[in-house]
Design brief:
62% helix; 22 helices; 486 residues
Length: 486
Amino acid sequence: MTKFAFLNTKRLFLALFATALFTMAVRETLDPDMWWHLRTGQYILQNGIPAQDVFTFTVPQNAWVTHEWLSQLIMWLVYLAGGLPGLILFFAALIAVTFWLLYLACAGRPYLAAFTVLLAAVTSAIVWGARPQIFNLLLTAVFVLIIERVKDGQWRVRTLWWLPLLTLVWANLHSGYLLGVVLLGTYAVGDVVQRWLAMPTERTLEGTAVTHLFGATFASFLAAAVNPSGIELWIYPFLTLGSGPMQAYIQEWHSPDFHQTYFWPFAAMLALGVLGWVLQKERPTITELLLFLGTGAAGLLSARHIPLFAIVVAPILARSWLNVLPGSRLAVGESPEQPAKPIFAVLNWLLLMVAVGTAVVWTSTKIDNNEAAIAARYPVAAVDYLAASGLDEARGYNSYNWGGYLIWRGVPVFVDGRADVYGDPFLLYYRRTFDVRPGWQEPLDEYDVDYVLMEAGSPLTAVLAASPDWTEVYADNLAQIFIRAK
């Protein structure tokens, strides 16, 4: 019987850890932007990468920087192969791989590292789903793993030169590639400042290695221009970050509200990071301070950045608590080759099979309930009515949150989640009607809107119901449809 057949505590723990990562990541396909990402992937496969909007009747002339084109193409191919269940499994696997790589980047394996990564995973779970942003998390973890292994002396410095190639791929998956460039630059600057202003540590890179790191940073920045939009992608992330309406109206761009329990893991990571530095004897390095404070500030400004903080900070957190708990069982564990007694090996296998069985049941349940979850979130029945009445080919004013789903159903939209395509002036114009401000009818008249599809009970539907110019033709618990009165 092989050594692995005697499943000891350490191997069981790692198997349960990997199973937990995948199981946690299984989510219904409810992201509002997933729908237009899929249709974009289909369009790219059939027609090539669009340079202008192809889904609306309001801004067909507007330029579209399709910075997620490769992610969208991958998503569509996965959908063709496995439908929505395939997307659920694919993105759950991507998330599990992401946090397994992060585990490999952390000190204190298996126990301390695993618990740290589980906290990071829970912290980042606010953005999980079938969406291109998951590729950002994956590549951030890859960058962190490579740099941390080089700083630990486990991998050669030349490994850093894989990062520009990875950046080239990243820039075609998502404009979040800039994080990788900034991450590299922060490690480089931090180690230089550490040598100039503080005492170098055994993890501080030597001069030659820092030169390689700066070189990889610059080469990564240049590599990002190898994409269909060219050097325009260099400035695109800053345009997004500088959009007032996006910051004001899109929830994940808001600062975290710590009254909401799903932000508490973020607060816990912040607190544990500071506490670990207070309790350990060694001072944090300049690089660690820059990474922790920089990503922490970004997470406090926008919830969208919290998952990136979790990934970047997890190795720092594990390392500081390893210094706080030197030699403890939590930090170092036991020998991986120490076999369990036969009776305990059998019990361990039973426990693992129960865990795997639970994961299979959980995953199957999520897949089976996916359509019902979609119907509870999106106006499935209302769009069925549009199709049956012929309104699906007319001009409609729709909820921003439902624009992506309408695109999926082949309905021309007034607006959808591609805020960058519409631009700030148009989004503010759209909100005039949505918020029922003075002149709220003007957007409806200017764009010759034939019907309005909006969440049931919204301020706009209340005004339309009282207006002699509009007639309600459909209503359910989720949506209402109004058409112009004849």
